[in-house]
Amino acid sequence: MKAKSLFCILFASGAIATMASGGYPFSPAKLTDVAVTGGFWLPRFETNRIVTLKTDFEKCELERIPNFRRAAKREWGTFKGIPFDDSDVYKVIEGAANILAVHPDQELEKYVDGVIAAIAGAQEPDGYLYTARTLGFAYKGKDGKPEFRMMGPTRWSHLAHSHELYNVGHLYEAAVAWYEATGKRNLLDVAIRSADLVDRTFGPGETQLHETSGHEEIELALAKLYRATGEVRYLELAKYLLDRRGKDGNGQSAKVFTQSGDLADGKALGAPGAYCQKHLPVVDQREAVGHAVRATYLYSGMADVAALVGNKEYVKAIDAIWENVVQKKLALNGSVGARRGGEAFGANYELPNETAYLETCAGIGNALWNERMFLLHGDAKYVDVIERVLYNGIVSGVSLSGDEFFYPNPLASQGGYKRSKWFGCSCCPVNVVRFIPQIVQFTYATRGNDAYVNLFVESDATLKLGCGNVRLSQETDYPWNGKVKIGVTPPLDGVRFALHVRIPGWCVGRPVPSDLYTQVEPGTMEDFKVTVNGRAGARPSRDDKGYAVIDREWKAGDTVEIAMNMPVRRIKANDKVEADKGRLAVERGPIVYCAEGADNAGKAFHAFIPAEATFTEGALEIGAERFVSLKSSNGVTLVPYFIWGNRKPGNEMQTWFPGGYGVRPDYHRLPQ
Ligand SMILES: [Zn+2]
Description:
single chain, alpha+beta, six-stranded mixed beta sheet, 17 helices, 24 strands, globular, binds zinc ion
């Protein structure tokens, strides 16, 4: 009956007809549609492929992968680490799959097949997969009886903390990526056995469990597994798990981490369950609360299921939550989750700098969620958020060398904070490796005969439009230079389609889609120019979704040129942000700048830049890479925020500079 009812919903919404796009009106480019050929992203992709992937696998070989090997042999009592460590291995496999999809490597594939064999061996006969339990993760409590850390004495008995469903969510994502990259079912079959067990165990039936996961992830993963297999039970299970949130009464975690922000919807944010977004049914939520990674994965899952079943209530909720984030809870580096306590969203306008948490995973979660918001609505404002977090709060999370990582990404430091090789809880390094290759999917999108250029990435792409395959090749030095050249090759000369070129908010006076951050001297539409074959007369119209639309009959060799003015702009925060009062930040294009000790005689935390300062541009070389640096007229050297801590790990850093406005400090730059 369950399946039948959902099929009816799917049929009625026409969702099956749009399965190719995952149910969304807009389709992202596939990993294999776009080859990054140079510019800013090629070194990031190559470092991720060559260094980060290797580093992650090496670290996982020390503790995490051996758990699977020991579980395959049922070596009771030998678990090492934390129960959610299984997910790290799945995330690195997803990263390997995303890399292999465009860069065949037989040796890597063979190695991963071996790891998958260990995972398959660790799976219990009925599909249960959780090495901590299979290996008997317990220790003796004070009275000599075994106590079960995080996971409860029996399966699913402590879902608030066990991560049993979170782990397998990452398994499903990895399995789909591996299947799509290699055509192999080895991990997909493991995922299906697991999902079938979860589907038998959780649901509305009298003998089933009605609880949900303490850490969201399985919801979006089940949507992905449904798309890969066509098995509607998985989609239905995703929707069931979403709809049970706020109703299953399982909010133990909230007693530990409570919110004390203002009350957007009249209900206490400190209500049990806010930490893991169980304080209200998901359709009634209107404010981003609780653990930021959990939250962004939840909102992503809601978007996926909404797109697939045509649920308007989910969309209404995530639209409102998105407005709350961009208006009141988005950090300058585009990341979210201001509070260290609970790794959580703060109250409205609670946006500290030195103590800001802004976990690398939360930045990635914010990008994944905003990508889905774009695919639902087709508005460039979501890509503005993606671009901000991509170039600032996400790439800051990994060193230029690719083997050291930030967990939190604060916006100021008095020194002593540096990237690490690995963490006890190492969610961030393994999120980086699976995320970086996905950036090409954010670069382009399609809908019918419309192609969308969302990010400016030097690349060759082949997009499938209604009229046939269209080739787009971008040449650009973005984000250091605002010039972009796009070569267009239609399927046949004379074929008509529309090219939608995103007009970045930072270029035209809207650095974020709200009044949270504004430019002191805002850019205007005059700062964005586009020509076709060098003719300004072909000036396109600008639609109301933030795109320049060039709708014409194309011929091979047509060239679109975009010129974005990229002056240094001072940024001020909304007056309600206490931490930024009397301060201004510095941006150029999509890049947030900071001062770090390495360039400023070791002292940057107290760096002062007056509101009337002017800036000269310079070049900073690190290894083979070149970055644009800035020098203020009062002598402070600035570098892109994301590279801080690479040359002198643990040095001072500042992003919001006093003396901005309303303050006249009596010092030039303190202490010297
Ligand atoms: Zn993390």
